[in-house]
Amino acid sequence: MTPARTPLIAGNWKMNTTPAEARRLASDVIHAVGDPAGVDVAVCPPFVSLHAVAEALRGSAIALGAQNLYPAPSGAYTGEISPTMLQNLCRYVIIGHSERRAYFMESDEFINDKVRAALEHGLTPILCVGESLEQREAGRATDILRAQTTAGIAHIDDVAPIVIAYEPVWAIGTGVAATPDDAREGISVIRETIADARGHGAAESVRILYGGSMNPQNVESLLAQPGVDGGLIGGASLNAEQFASLVRAAAQQG
Ligand code: PEP
What residues contact 249, with CB distance under 8 A and at least 6 apart? Predict the structure, then answer.
């Protein structure tokens, strides 16, 4: 029997909002989302807004996430933020987003260090994997997904707490989401990879989200696909009403 996986809708605010704007957006999201039955909801503002948003979210059903961490508890890493700094503030942390892989040269090994550091500090990693357009056109999408997933969960015995986001790079911020079939196919490759590495039960326990231009128009068809356990949302998460409509869609599918 497949264990029930609670869907997750997580907003990645990226490098947007000042602390004052973030506090306002968080309040608007609380108001628009209300009490989402059967769906986990999170917002991931920039580091400097975590405190303001944590205060705004207090008492609400919406969880807080960070967008990154450095995999050491403390030390001489100028400009970085450690898991110990985040652990009492956040529930989630996005790791290995394609923008960090591309612009900050993050390797699969470094990303695995971060996933393990998050877990060791009680944070839920949202591990992002996904192929670029070039890789897809070269017929390498499956290999890339398998390689990024395998590396991302390396050295981790209990993978159940990890959330994985399938984010095809060509769909992020482009307005061109994956088709529902492509999203289902990518997610099934990821789940099969986990099953091969850690067994079927482990694979069935991991939540796998779709991310890439998800919006109120395409959300229902994407979430209707078997194995799609929610969404990681960029652009649409900056609009409280749009974000709330994605949460409602997830609640209806649940
Ligand atoms: C993202 O960056 O994780 C993302 C999914 O962005 P967007 O929704 O804007 O494509």
Answer: 216, 219, 220, 223
pTM for this model (two decimals): 0.97
Rg of the chain over CA atoms, in angstroms? 17
> Is residue 173 lining ligand 1, measured as CB closer than 6 Å?
yes
Q: How far is the CA of 1 from the centre of ligand 1 (A)?
A: 32
CA 43 to CA 8: how far, in whole Å? 11
Q: Minimal CA–CA distance to 207: which of 165, 172, 250, 157? A: 165
What does the alpha-carbon distance between residue 172 and residue 154 come to, in Å, rounded to a whole number? Answer: 26
Show which residues are catalytic.
97, 167
State which residues of the chain have pLDDT below 50.
1-2
Query: Is the distance from CB of 92 to CB of 126 less than 8 angstroms?
Result: yes
CA of 75 to the centre of ligand 1 (A): 32
Nearest-10 Cα torsion for 192, 182, 13, 85 = 10
